[in-house]
Amino acid sequence: MKLKTAKRWFSWHKWTSLICTIFLLLLCLTGLPLIFHEEIEHLQENFTVETIEGQQRLSYDKLVEIAESKNPGKHVRYAFWEKDEHPNQVLFDVVEHPDDHFEKSKYVLINEYTGAVLSEPENEGFMYIMLRLHTDMFAGIPGKLFMGLMGILFIISIVSGIVLYGPIMKNFDFGMVRKHKSKRLQWLDTHNLLGIVMVVWLTVVGLTGIINTLSDVVLGLWQQGQLAEMTAPYKNEKPIEGSLSSLEAAVNVAENKIPTMDVSLVAYPGTPFTSKHHYAVFMKGNTELTSRLLMPVLIDAKSGTITDARKMPWYVNTLFISQPLHFGDYGGITLKIIWAVFDVLTIVILITGLYLWFERRKSKITFSKNNSKVK
């Protein structure tokens, strides 16, 4: 590699890394507990789901009444199921208006068989703070997009690091750490070694992180594209007045339409994931991969009949796959531990990178001072 070209790549690596390092440290530190969010949530749960042999599940309409009775003047807008992790439970999101900001949500977790309120989770606590810091730094969509920009700089720093590493290692053995040289050279070799060994993981986490920051953009594209097509016949109709059709019936219709999938989420009319005339029943598959992908079934919230059901477009599925992959949430606790180890090693890479920059800068300042004294 020519000296001029090498200097250019070194400049790209240095400045992209420096600009994004502080934010990457924040992402690594907050991401560590988020990798184990399910395990932490299980430890925090202090209730058991009681079921009796032969007992019938209560209707979802009855459970909606219970959730709304806990929050007078408010109404359910979302219902969530996690049958693998939290069987026999349904979580309701209750608000005053369907388009309220999620910060106004009240949550009610209910036992499907007894109707007992298991908990009323709040948007607060350690895990909530970690999640918000990791996703948008409490700055909403601008914060997400800013983190996406930092992710792009991170990818550039990875690419430039790979380009620089090849020529450097032509004269050395792979994995070399010069233990008998200066402390700075030892840290430089450690930095380079960890970076090249983890390059695939760093790239995967970086790219999936960028994709995840575009979730609001993806939602907007889906709303204007597929969702608009599915609800086109209702475009000029007035919003539903009066009571809605049965939630229980809507879920049953969707499950009968796609018996190979399970209900994961129901969005009420007027929410961002549906129209003002439909329940959107989102179904998921039963395998490790298909359980991450959702398929919307639109149910007319007045008549209770199916309007449309389609597979999500590729860009939405890309987002669905990226979200769990970013946190290593595909292979159980073993993969999560591997992700955590790599996360810690990434922190080492970032800290050594800062150390090397400070040492290099200090050396330049010292050299300049010595030269000025000689003159």
Automatic annotation (TrEMBL):
Protein name as it appears in the record: PepSY domain-containing protein
Naturally occurring in which organism (per UniProt): Galbibacter pacificus
UniProtKB keywords: Membrane, Transmembrane, Transmembrane helix
UniProt KW Oxidoreductase keyword: no
PANTHER family the record matches: BLL7967 PROTEIN, IRON-REGULATED INNER MEMBRANE PROTEIN-RELATED
Listed transmembrane segments: 145-169, 190-211, 337-358
Highest taxon, organism lineage: Bacteria
